[in-house]
Amino acid sequence: MDIKIDIVSGFLGAGKTTLIKKLLDSDLRKEKLAILENEFGEVSIDGDLLNDTKVDIKEINSGCICCSLVGDFKEAMHEIIKQYSPERIIIEPSGVAKLSDIIKSCKSISKNNNIYINNIFTVIDVINYEAYINNFGEFYKDQIKNANTIILSKIENNDEEQIKKISRLIRNINKESSIITAPLDEMDGNDILTISKEDIKKSNEKTLSIKKSFKISAVNKVSHSHSADNIFNNWGVETQKSFSKSTLEKIFKIIVNDKSYGNILRGKGIVKLEEGIWGEFHYTPGKFKINKATKQRVGKIVIIGEGVDKNKLNLLFNING
């Protein structure tokens, strides 16, 4: 039986999990699906957010699928295939993973299996595009360049000219992929898949053309020095502490204004709220939101960035440990 692999890539907080939920509400639900989640850090959040989908989920924590975790990735893939026998595996890599490395890892598994890469999505945060491309060009450009289909997120409060500008900048990096500029919250999963199907067709035709036109006589080995752990670090905690919405908003205002906590690029969590409910919060530079969440066994908080000061964050969130 053939197994399709769909990759949903995107930098920290771009909206990968939101896209996956859209896809799970599409015609893909007619297939037997499994999800491979890769979190950067020891505390997993995204897997909890997808639990309500009733799809089989396998998680890899404490790094990104690329260099150090490639063995764990292969083992997880083989475990998913053996345990669940899926028709399709959706992979959500860490936001700081290089998409080219994910593709390479998938291809290394597909050699001896009936597995092939299908959709390759990259979600782009319009609000932070220019800041991220300037500061993290290696990761960001790689995720754009290797996508089949690119989806712009957080466009609701951006004017049409800004969206056109970002689209032009993306087009300079990837001249082939479709760029979807409709609001992700309003998109239908089947519409996204229809566009992606055409992108896959274009990609296959391009690959076939290259194979027909060129004969490769030699391949030079290239050294590979990338490691997200050398650039980003994280703070993660499990807690039974309750928070008010106003307290969480205040905490992230402090984080924005006081860089001694680190250059915080992503915050997310599921925690008990003092109002007697559970809340799911998300932070990226320039945006904080909190929504109602289903009850969890334990609250979880993850902060990712550069130079993250774990001790100061423990004190800020008033969490011992």
From TrEMBL:
Domain annotation CobW C-terminal: ranges: 234-315
Chain ranges of the CobW/HypB/UreG nucleotide-binding domain: 7-180
Catalyzed reaction equations: GTP + H2O = GDP + phosphate + H(+)
Keyword entries, A-Z: Chaperone, Hydrolase, Nucleotide-binding
Pfam families: cobW, CobW_C
CDD domains: CobW-like (cd03112)
Claim: Chloroplast is one of the keywords in the record: no
KW Cell inner membrane (keyword) present: no
Family: Belongs to the SIMIBI class G3E GTPase family. ZNG1 subfamily.
Record-given protein name: GTP-binding protein
Organism of origin: Clostridium cibarium
